[in-house]
Amino acid sequence: SKVHENGLACKDPAAVVAEDFHFGGLDKPGGTTSKRFGFTANQVQIPGLNTLGESHVRLDVAPGGVFPVHYHPRAAETALVLEGSVYFGFVSSYPDNKLYAKVLRKGDVFAVPQGLVHFLHNNGTTPATLYASLSSQNPGLVLLGNSLFAGALPDDLVAKTLLTDQHTVQTIKANFRRS
Amino acid sequence: SKVHENGLACKDPAAVVAEDFHFGGLDKPGGTTSKRFGFTANQVQIPGLNTLGESHVRLDVAPGGVFPVHYHPRAAETALVLEGSVYFGFVSSYPDNKLYAKVLRKGDVFAVPQGLVHFLHNNGTTPATLYASLSSQNPGLVLLGNSLFAGALPDDLVAKTLLTDQHTVQTIKANFRRS
Amino acid sequence: SKVHENGLACKDPAAVVAEDFHFGGLDKPGGTTSKRFGFTANQVQIPGLNTLGESHVRLDVAPGGVFPVHYHPRAAETALVLEGSVYFGFVSSYPDNKLYAKVLRKGDVFAVPQGLVHFLHNNGTTPATLYASLSSQNPGLVLLGNSLFAGALPDDLVAKTLLTDQHTVQTIKANFRRS
Amino acid sequence: SKVHENGLACKDPAAVVAEDFHFGGLDKPGGTTSKRFGFTANQVQIPGLNTLGESHVRLDVAPGGVFPVHYHPRAAETALVLEGSVYFGFVSSYPDNKLYAKVLRKGDVFAVPQGLVHFLHNNGTTPATLYASLSSQNPGLVLLGNSLFAGALPDDLVAKTLLTDQHTVQTIKANFRRS
Amino acid sequence: SKVHENGLACKDPAAVVAEDFHFGGLDKPGGTTSKRFGFTANQVQIPGLNTLGESHVRLDVAPGGVFPVHYHPRAAETALVLEGSVYFGFVSSYPDNKLYAKVLRKGDVFAVPQGLVHFLHNNGTTPATLYASLSSQNPGLVLLGNSLFAGALPDDLVAKTLLTDQHTVQTIKANFRRS
Amino acid sequence: SKVHENGLACKDPAAVVAEDFHFGGLDKPGGTTSKRFGFTANQVQIPGLNTLGESHVRLDVAPGGVFPVHYHPRAAETALVLEGSVYFGFVSSYPDNKLYAKVLRKGDVFAVPQGLVHFLHNNGTTPATLYASLSSQNPGLVLLGNSLFAGALPDDLVAKTLLTDQHTVQTIKANFRRS
To answer: What are the Cα distances from residue A131, in Å, to B46, B112, C77, D151, F6?
Structure first.
C-alpha cells in the first residue's frame, strides 16, 4: 500500500480464509540462524494476528549459545521451555538493575514485564527449544550489544556509557563487523 | 485484600522474587480434568503476569475429546499443537457465522480474534496436546453449552434461542446435571 | 476505499456536516425484522460515531418474542425499556454460569458487562420497546443458537459441546435452515 | 474505602446481585432540578457500570429551557429525543468554532465527539425529554458559564477572555450568585 | 492522502531521517501572534511525534496579556515557566468549579488534568515565556470565549448559558468580530 | 498504603490543593548528580500528574558529560535544549540499529519514539541544560551500561552478548563498582 499507518493495513475481509490464521512448522527449527550467538529463530507469521496484540516465536539455542541480552520496546514476553535447559531471566530498571533469573527446564514458563532487559543462555550440553509469546503484534527487538556496537554510535559516547576506553570499544566493534 | 479493584492487586515490589515470574510442570498434563468433554487443562499461574496482558494454558485432549465450543470475552488466542492432531477453528459473528477451521498437526499454530466462538476436537486416535496463549491476564471463559444448559436460564428462553422445544432443552439440561 | 484498516476510514473533515452526526426515526420500529425470534432491530447509523466508542439500537419485541441468547465480543451494553416489559439479564462466565436477571418495566435500565452472554424475553402480552447503548462503534454480535446451528460447525462437535446426540443436533439445524 | 484510586473501587464479586446492574424510574423526570436553566436531570446510577465505559442520563427541559453550553472532559455523547423538540448541537474546536446543530424531534439521535462544547435548547412550547449516553463511567461535566462566572476566576482574567470589561463580568457573576 | 483515518498518516519508514524528529527555534518567540489576547504561540512541529502521545508549544505573553480561559479535549498539560511570572491555574468540573491556581515564577512547573478549563495571565510588568507539554499528538484547543462568541451559537442560547441578556451577548460578539 | 496496585494510589480528592499540581526550582540544577557521567537530574515531582501520562526532568550536563545510552520502557520522550549544545539521538531497533542524531543547540527540540535507545553527549565547552518530557507518569529508565555491568548478569552471558571475552567484562564491571 502507498498509505502508511501506525501498524500494518488489513486484508479485505471478504477475501479472508482460514489459512490467514494459520502457520505451520513450529515442530522444527527454522527461519533465521545466528551463528554468532548460536540460536535459530522461527517467527510465527499469521496475517490474522494483525491488531490482536500477540506474536510468537520458536527459539532453538545450541549448547553454549545465547539469545543475547535484549528487550522488546512494545511487549511483555512469556517463554515456555519445550526441550533442554536454559538460564533465563530479566534485569529490573535503573537504579536497581536487580536480576530475576532461574535455570529453566522442560515445562517451565517464565514471564518478563514489558520493555525490560532479558536473555537466555543455554549452558547445558544439549540443544534447547523455547516457544515465546509476546503481548503485541509489533513488539520490536533491541539487542543491547548490537545497539551499542553494530550501529553508528560514536566510540567516545559508547566508551563513556560503559565506563571504558575507546580502544576497547573499537575492538568490540570490530568483532561485530566480522560475520 | 479488602479493597476490590478491576483486576488483582499487586504484590509489594520490595518482596518480589524470581519465583513470582515462574511456573513449572507444563511438560505434563495437570490441573483440571473434565471427564465429560475429555480434556485436561493446566493453567499457567504466574503472579508477575498481572497487568501484563497475557495468560497461558496447556490443554490435553483425549481421542474423541473436545474443548467444547466457547469464547473468551476479553482476549484473542493463539494455540500451538505440541503433540497429536486436532480439528481447530472459530466462527465469525452474526449474520455470517462463517467457519474458519483446519486440522492442525504438531507444529501448527492457529489464531482466534478477540471474543469469537472457537473450539478444538481431537478426532484422531492419539492424545493431543496444545499450548494456548491469550492476550489478557484475565481473559474469561464462556462455554456455549454450559452457558445455555448448566445455569439458570429459563427453558422457554433457551428453546426459543435454539428454535427447539422445551422438552429437548430439559433433556439436555439433565445431561449437564449428571456428573 | 481500497485500503483496509482496523475499523472504518474517516470522512474528509472539510466535508463533514451536521447531518453526519444525525439519525432519525427511532420513535418507530424499523430496520431488520426477525420473524423467527419476534423482534425488529432499528440500528442507529451515524457516520460521526466512528472512533467514538458508542453505538445504539432500538429493539421492538412482540409478545412471546425474544432477542435470543447472544453476546457482543467488543462491547458492554446498557438497555432502557421504553415501552412494555421484558425479562432481561446476563449469565456470568464459566464455571459459575450465574444468572443476573430481572423483569424490566418501562423506565428500567439494566447493564451487561463486556462480552457476557445476555438476552431479553417479552413474556408479557403487549409489545416491548428498548433502546440499547453499546460501548463500541463496532461491538459485534454473536447469537449462541445461530453460531452453533446456522453455520458449518460439524454435528459431532456440536453434539459433544451440548452433551447430546447428533440426531438432536441435526433436528435443530433443520429448524435453522427453515426461513 | 480509605484507599483512593483513579475511579471507584469495585464491590466484592461474591456479593454482587442482579440489582447492582439495575436502575429504575427513567420513565419519569427526577433527580436534580435546575430552575435557573429550566432542566431536570435524572442520572442513571448503576454500580455495575463501573469500568464499563458508559453512563446515561434522562434530561427534561421545559419550554424555553436549556441545558446550557457545556462539555464532558472524558466522554463522547449520543442523545435520543424521547419527547418534544430541541435545538441541539456542538461547536468544533479553535480556530474554526464551527456549529454543527439541528432541530431534533422525537426519534432523532445526535452524536457529539469527545470533549467538544455542546448544548440543547427547548425553543418549542412543550416539554422535551432526552436520553443521553456517554462513553465513560466518569465523563465529567463542565458548564462554560458556571466555569467562568460561578467559581473564583478573577474578574480581569474573565473580562480579557471574553473581550469585555470587568463591570460586565461582575454583573453576570452577581446573577450566578442569585439562586 | 485521499484516505482519511483518525489521526495523521505515517511517513514511509524507509524515507524517515533524523530531521523528521527535530524542530528548532524555540529559544525565540514565533508562530502565531494574538494581539487581542497579548500572546504569541510557537507550536513545535515534529512529524515523528505522530502516534507518540505528546505535543509542545512555547508561549510568550506580554505584560497584561493572557492565554485566555480554554481547555484541550484530548490532553493533560504541564507548563514550565522559562521567563517572567504568570498567574496560572485550572478550574475543576461542575458543580464545584473550584480554582486551583498559583502565581508561577521562572522554574515553576504546574500540571492540568485532561480536559479541564485552564488559563494564564501575565499580571507582571515583564514578558513571560512558558513551555507547555500536552499528553497527545492531537490535543485540540477550545477557547471558552471564542466558542461562545466567535462562532454561530444563537444569542438567546448564549444569554441563557451566561444568565445574561441578548444585548450583552451581542455587544461581546461585536468585540470578537473586530480584529 | 498497604494495598499495592499498578501505579500509585491517589490522594483523597477532598484534600487536594493547588500545591499538589506544582513543582518549583527548575530554573536551577538540582536533584541527583552523577559524577561518573557528568550530569545532574532534577526530576519534576507533581503528585497531581498521577494517571495523567506525563513526567518531566531537567538535565544539566557538564562539558564532556553524557546522559549515557539508555531507554524508557514505558514512554516516548521529547527534549528541549535550554542552554548549550549537545549531540542527541536515538538508535532504531534490530536489525537496522540505525542512528537518528543531531547536534542540538539552544531552542532545538528532538523526539524519541517509545522504548528506543537514546543518549545525549555534551561535546561542547560549556554546560548544557535540557528539559525532557516523557509520555508516562511512570516511564522507567534502563541505562544499557549499568544494566550489563552494574547488576548481577553473569560474565559469560555479557561476554557472549558483546562478542568479547570475560576478562574485558570483568574489567568494565570493576569500573562500575568504583564510585
So the answer is: 17, 18, 38, 59, 27
Residue A151 inside a domain? The answer is yes
Which residue in E1, E7, E51 is closest to A3 by CB distance? E1
Please report, for the domain that includes residue F76, its CATH number: 2.60.120.10
Whether chains B and E touch (3+ CB pairs under 8 A) is answered by no
Q: Is B22 annotated as a binding residue?
A: no
Residues forming a β-bridge with E63: none
ipTM of model: 0.95
Q: Is there a contact between E5 and A5 if contact means CB atoms under 8 Å apart? A: yes
Show Cβ contacts of residue C173 under 8 Å, excluding neighbours closer than 6 positions: C149, C150, C155
Say yes or no: A123 and A175 in one domain.
no
For chain F, state the CA radius of gyration.
18
Report pLDDT digits (tens) over C104-147: 999 999 999 999 999 999 999 999 999 999 999 999 999 999 99
Distance, CA of B155 to CA of B169 (rounded, Å): 6
Nearest to B59 by CA among B19, B99, B88, B22: B88
**Residue F9 contacts D, CB cutoff 8 Å:** yes
User: Do F46 and E111 lie within an 8 Å CB cutoff?
Assistant: yes
Separation of first and last alpha carbons in chain A: 34
> Does one domain contain both F121 and F151?
no
Q: Are residues C97 and C129 in the same domain?
A: yes
Handedness of CA F141, F146, F152, F153 (dihedral sign): positive
Cell digits of residue D49: 457500570
Do A164 and A88 share a domain, yes or no? no
* Whether E68 and E103 share a structural domain: yes
DSSP at D164: S
Pairing of strands B142-143, A32-34: unpaired
Number of structural domains found in chain C: 2
Q: Tens of pLDDT along chain B (179 residues)? A: 566 777 788 888 889 999 999 999 999 998 999 999 999 999 999 999 998 999 999 999 999 999 999 999 999 999 999 999 999 999 999 999 999 999 999 999 999 999 999 999 999 999 999 999 999 999 999 999 999 999 999 999 999 999 999 999 999 999 999 96
Say whether both F157 and F133 belong to one domain.
no
Which strands sit side by side in the sheet containing A77-83, from one edge to the other?
A: A32-34, A39-43, A55-61, A128-134, A77-83, A109-112, B22-23
Query: Would the CB atoms of E171 and D164 count as touching at under 8 Å?
Result: yes
- Report yes or no on B1 lying in a domain: no
Chain D neighbors of B10, CB-CB under 8 A: none
Q: What is the dihedral of CA B10, B13, B17, B18, to 10 degrees?
A: 70
Instruction: Please state whether beta strands A77-83 and F66-71 pair in parallel, antiparallel, or not at all (unpaired).
Output: unpaired
Examine residue F77 and state whether it is found in any structural domain, yes or no: yes
Question: Are residues F103 and F128 located together in one domain of the fold?
Answer: yes
Residue of F nearest to B52 (CA): F6
- pTM for this model (two decimals): 0.96
Grid cell of B142 as nine digits: 464462556
From the CB of residue A96, how many other CB atoms can be counted at a distance below 10 Å?
Answer: 12
D171 by Cβ neighbours in 10 Å (0-12 / 13-18 / 19+) ranks as: middle
In terms of domains, do D24 and D69 share one?
Answer: yes
Residues whose CB falls within 8 Å of the CB of residue E114, separated by 6 or more in sequence, listed in order: D73, D74, E72, E74, E75, E76, E135, F52
Answer for the pair A85, A124: CB distance below 8 angstroms, yes or no.
Answer: yes
Residue B177 makes CB contacts below 8 A (sequence gap 6+) with none
List, in sequence order, every beta strand (DSSP E) within chain D. Answer: 22-23, 32-34, 39-43, 55-61, 66-71, 77-83, 85-91, 99-105, 109-112, 117-121, 128-134, 142-143
DSSP letter at A63 equals T
Establish if E2 belongs to a structural domain. no
* Domain region containing C162: 143-179
**Rounded to 5°, angle at Cα F19 from D173 and E90:** 35
DSSP A123: -
Residues in chain D: 179
